[in-house]
């Protein structure tokens, strides 16, 4: 897989941006691909009446989690209560929205490239008070549609893609064929690279330096198919970057050029079992970001319903 | 509405607990009412292809929010980036899981009554390290089923129930009849008391002292109908309590006796418009708690899909 | 007391700034008044061998504390320990550095007026990553010198100054005479307005709107006497502001013009008793800011030693 | 250096506990050694008029800091302000009180051994709401006295003590003789093992597993000399423990048996230069814990004044 030159990347960026045009006031980007008709049709994916999480539990400290979140107890139910007849267990949560292990969604304000956010919004729209444009609140009604899981390690016949390896267009198309599923307009595409399984088996490593992800050119496949959202068990971006002078090229293309929300560090192990049992790789997918006004994203627990 | 004596409440507690028996090892409680068949049938509620949030944005400080959450920026996209070709907006979240304004779900470990949690679990199961039993992780695959909204102020012909007022069995049955919907087994029941609208119109008040909710006896209606989850735009409990010697009687009955997760401080205003437009009050409901191991609940953004 | 016009304030600002000149590279401001000789002399104030706190305990939520800090337990000593022969109590702290109730010190980066921080430093020196100039780390070796307490309510014969009232030059000079003490070069000046006592007696109020403090012109007294630091049991600034078009004029004059660290919301009740018993109003004062690189200030517990 | 058996340790514990008796109601422990006379005499140590920090800056993530604190900006002075004529820089702090890198003081509630805290206080005195006994508030007036620094690597002629090595009674006595200083009643004893220098030179390591500290028997030296407080540039405890069946034996002896506050992870590099220049190793030391009611300790910036 050849690396991309800066000029090649620029051309790719412009091409993808040009295909994502819902007018200058648009703030929803690729979510526009989820039409009511497509959403209603997606409900037809529910047949077994089974649900499964696509998130991993809040992680502790590790090589890929230098600033872990924490959950601290505020009240214990076995202690004296000031209230009659009842005592409560309660806790307090704190966490970074992004990072390299906890499952989360990136808002469209998350990425700035060449001095602009998605659709020409200026980076000054994000201040110490949060994002006045393109925050995660733009998805406050949830993201619901047909989900499709493409399992790249299965297609390749490996346990997982090694850090540094790329998912290519050929991988995506090959997995589609092998799994007998076709990614279509408005779909929520989930691409498994095996990151979580590798982490479970070998323990965490410094993923900021080496990570499997999608090749930037694979984003052309997503644009062509009019994918609404991309989720991955890594953060979709290979490390180190294959593009000269651009770190996180998939983030740049997806979020800044295409207006596509990314779901990072998902967990597909539970879903795999269910898809295997059901003999199909599509489902109703529901993503419910917290309502964090001005937020750059949200922790999420995407739910697949089969 | 007469107040309940302690003895009356005890009898009610025992009656409801007796109707909720899935064996001594059960940790899912009323979620057991959501069978695969019922869940699959609920998908049939999706016709319009529309989604809507049942949560309110993270709230700032107020009379009902003495310990507000906060979202602090970690990086601004307009500032110097150490990475080539890209800069990020990122933030950090901290918040109490419970409280009196942010939309959240209560785990079954949240309430202790008469020295036990749900199903006889000892309160010592919750330590400074979190809940080893009955944490919100027991719902990690999400809660999905048919949702039904009963709008009590609409039934009563008022804007909202005043703080201190109760939703009774007669209100629930009356609203059902008026809205031409029937709450059934495995349903996620959402009861609107108008709390959010009152807050929006009049501003926040000290809800710990005065709040509209359900009368404890109304829980018999929920048990009989085999409701899986109860959500409310208040916290379902009237203040002050109508039961001598028991604060939060609905929390005690729902969580500790019936094993029913509660959704507190939801927001139904957006859903109301959509239900009105659709001419029906049932929908597919999806609740996706964050994966907080040991947690006493989670902030949530429940999504209704019509 | 006449209000100050914008022009009067500008003239006062320029006058005070002109008297505070330690060169363009200076980052310590009025701390320069504390020479080794003065510091060593201040140690002579220690005679009784008694110490006393000038801080108040971390406060809970209140009308003057809409975003309270919190201390959450991480481990309880009575719970199971993974370590042999020992178990620990441990906790986690979170708090805003500034605010209107917790005792803290303001770094010189805290205040921006007319587009600059102290000594012409540009506000862009403070980014989402903190202050690269004028942070509290500039005082990392502590602030130690002779402290003098002027008790204005005692001089006036009242319990406390009512919110909105000003400490004037006449008050400062009068209290000096009454207390038989003279504020001199390098002193840490503590001015009591009775804010804490009023809060203890009447409960917290919305201090952002009404608060006793120093009249802006009183800063001329501090400049003339070469005071090194100003501490107050309010935040030194009267509310509402007496200056047209400038909120927090004392903050602006002290920090931005004079380079003077401010200590806000101290507690002098314990010190009062000790000074009374000792029959004098000067002491060795030690302020030990936490080492928060890039920080805009620090919670502190100033210690007076008599 | 032979390891201690459990029985030897028990005997040492009882011996040291027996020497620390200020009655059953005592909550100050070894702080009782600081009498007013000794404190007043300590002020005589101030001759140069110089101050120096004994703390290190708040640390980022590292092998010895898996749950780092953070300082997040709340307002930037260069952004739009809602206030006339002024804008502020402000931030928010969060951190664990204990841990293996940030300079802090341990309260007497921090350690439980054989089912009790210091002086027979039951561990149930510490709940999710904090410590009702033996919290850091017991030192709210600060800890002030004569400080003495013993530099063990200098005495040994090495850069630092390697992890696992012990400071013995012979080391303490030898350093005293070499430095021509004698530790006496009420002194704040600071023992340098070179931990910070090693960390600066070699980078952080997993100090929970290997760390230089004091040998448990060295606590007899401290008891005999009536030391008030012990501070170290590690946490005073060697790892792995030299005592069979007791982790953190110095913590157990100092805090639980002797009622001695510990200062962990201090930084003596700045102090060393000053002591060298002054030609003496004693000084006035001031420790100002934050006023954290119920707290198990506090971040601190101890100040040495020469």
How would you characterize the overall build of this protein?
Helix content of chain A is 23%, strand content 21%. With 306 residues, chain A is an alpha/beta fold. In chain A, 62% of the residues are buried. The longest helix of chain A has 13 residues, at 6-18. In chain A, helix 1 runs parallel beside helix 7. Chain A has 8 helices and 17 strands. In chain A, the strands form 4 sheets. A 9-stranded mixed sheet of chain A has the order 1-17-15-9-11-13-14-5-16, with helices on both faces. Chain A has a two-stranded antiparallel ribbon with strand order 2-4. The first copy, chain A, has a two-stranded antiparallel sheet with strand order 7-8. Chains in contact: A-B, A-C, A-D, B-C, B-D, C-D. At the A-B interface, helix 2, strand 1, strand 2, strand 3 and strand 4 of A face helix 2, strand 1, strand 2, strand 3 and strand 4 of B. Strand 4 (90-96) of chain C pairs antiparallel with strand 4 (90-96) of chain D, so a sheet runs across the interface.
Secondary structure class of chain A reads: alpha/beta
Choose one word for the global shape of chain A: globular
Q: What oligomeric state do these chains adopt?
A: homotetramer
Helicity level of chain A: 10-25%
What Rg of chain A is obtained from the alpha carbons, in whole angstroms?
20 Å
Report the order of strands and helices of chain A. HHEEEEEEEEEHEHEHEHEHEHEEE
Main beta sheet of chain A, described?
Answer: 9 strands, mixed
Lateral strand order in the biggest sheet of chain A = 1-17-15-9-11-13-14-5-16
The total of helices of chain A stands at 8
Distance between the termini of chain A: 36 Å
Q: Which residues of chain A form runs of ≥5 with pLDDT under 50?
A: none
- Give the overall pLDDT of chain A as a whole number: 97
Biggest chain contact: A-B, 96 and 96 residues
Strand content of chain A: 15-25%
Number of strands of chain A: 17
């Amino acid at each position: 897989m050849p690396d991309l030159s800066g000029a090649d990347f620029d051309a790719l960026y412009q091409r993808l941006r040009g295909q994502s045009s819902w007018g200058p006031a648009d703030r929803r980007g690729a979510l526009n691909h989820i039409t009511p008709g497509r959403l209603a049709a997606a409900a037809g994916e529910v047949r077994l009446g089974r649900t499964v999480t696509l998130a991993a539990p809040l992680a502790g400290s590790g090589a890929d989690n230098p600033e872990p979140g924490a959950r601290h107890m505020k009240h214990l139910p076995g202690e004296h209560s000031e209230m009659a007849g009842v005592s409560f267990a309660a806790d307090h949560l704190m966490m970074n929205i992004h990072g390299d292990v906890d499952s989360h969604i990136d808002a469209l304000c998350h990425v700035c490239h060449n001095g602009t956010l998605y659709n020409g919004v200026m980076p000054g729209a994000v201040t110490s008070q949060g994002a006045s444009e393109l925050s995660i609140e733009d998805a406050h009604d949830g993201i619901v549609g047909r989900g499709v899981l493409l399992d790249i390690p299965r297609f390749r016949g490996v346990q997982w893609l090694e850090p540094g390896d790329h998912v290519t267009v050929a991988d995506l198309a090959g997995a589609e064929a092998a799994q007998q599923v076709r990614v279509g307009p408005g779909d929520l595409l989930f691409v498994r690279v095996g990151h979580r399984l590798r982490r479970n088996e070998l323990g965490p490593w410094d993923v900021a330096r080496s990570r499997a992800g999608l090749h930037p050119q694979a984003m052309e496949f997503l644009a062509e198919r009019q994918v609404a959202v991309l989720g991955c068990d890594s953060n979709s971006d290979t490390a180190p970057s294959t593009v000269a002078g651009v770190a996180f090229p998939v983030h740049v293309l997806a979020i800044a050029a295409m207006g596509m929300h990314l779901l990072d560090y998902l967990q597909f192990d539970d879903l795999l079992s269910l898809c295997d049992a059901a003999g199909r790789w599509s489902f109703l997918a529901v993503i419910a970001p917290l309502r964090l006004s001005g937020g750059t994203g949200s922790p999420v627990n995407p739910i697949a319903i089969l």
